[in-house]
Structure formats: C-alpha cells, structure tokens
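Worked problem 6 (solution included).
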Amino acid sequence: MVFKKLMAGTLLASLALSALAPAAAAAEPSANTPAVNAVTRLVNYSANNNDSLSTLITAATCDYFNGAIVDVLATTTNTLFAPRNAAFRKLGQALGLGAAGINSSNVCQVDDVLKIPGALKTILTYHVTTPKIGFAKAKAARGTSIKMLSGEMARVGGQRPYVVRVDTAKVVHKNIRSRNGVMHVINAVMIPPTIEAALAQ
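Solution. The predicted structure is:
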C-alpha cells in the first residue's frame, strides 16, 4: 500500500516535470518511441513486474535529493541501468545488514550505513549516463568505458554474444524504451570507484 502511494506520487511528479521540461528535451516522439518519459517508464515497469524496482524508485525519491535525480531522468536524454530489488538486498547482506539487506525501508539511510556522506547519490548517478545507449550499441562498446552521471567511468564487458555487463552487473532485461531514454535492468548494484576506495579504508 505504501509503495502504491509512492508510485502514484512519483508518477504525478514525473508528469509535472515533463510538462515543465524544455522543448528540446521533450521532442516529438517517433511512431516507434513511447510517449512516456524515463521516470514514468521506470515506475510502470516496476508496477508490472511485482514492484521489482521499488528499492531503486524509493532511493531516487529520497527527500534529501529534492527531486534532483527524478528531474535528470525525466528531462534529459539518458540511459538508466536499473538494479533489481534483489541486487540491493544482496548488497545490504554483504554489508552486514541481515537477510533483508537494503530495501525500500532503509535505502535512504545508506549514507549512514556506509558512513560516507553522499554515498547514495554517487551510487545512483553511477547508474545513469546521459547518452542514449541501446543494447546493440552497448554490445558494440564492450571493452571500453562509458562516463556515468557521477563523473566516473564504468567498464562495459561480456564474453558471450548476447551478454552485456557494466562493471560486474549483467543486463537481464534490455531496451525498455521511453520518450527520452532507454533502461536496462541489471542484476547487481554497481559500486563507483570512489565508494569502493572509501569502503576499503
């Protein structure tokens, strides 16, 4: 029930942001391009797949971000690598948070858990890049690195013909398109180099 309210609020916010977006960011979609923006597509995908991205949605809408991450997704041309709930849970378990790991109820406290100010924002923006990169383009980019919104470089790899990995995360659902971007669902939370370094200290 709480998450349904959250989804509704996020959806309304994304639609409002779309209406306020500059004309260049809200160009007319082609016949093959969905009319909804990247935030609405994220919310709809999660709702239609057992709330599988609810932790990510909660993280992006933490109060202290003041809508900044939602705004980027709603108004820029972007690619989102979206970790499933299981990926956040596994990360939390590795950090010693018990069987529940990181989930919708505690994801906004990640900075406190890691004792690293700004950690959650860095992690989330490490999952977004402002070019639009479809799966075919990602396959062609294997062996190279792409600059993420956090400013750090993520490595694109994958040995098998139909496998793409970004760092150690594997794309498990590809090319979920929106008016202003594309989303690929991944099976792990990618940890930016700066966060890795801070955790190692």
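Discussion: DSSP finds nine helices and seven strands in the chain.
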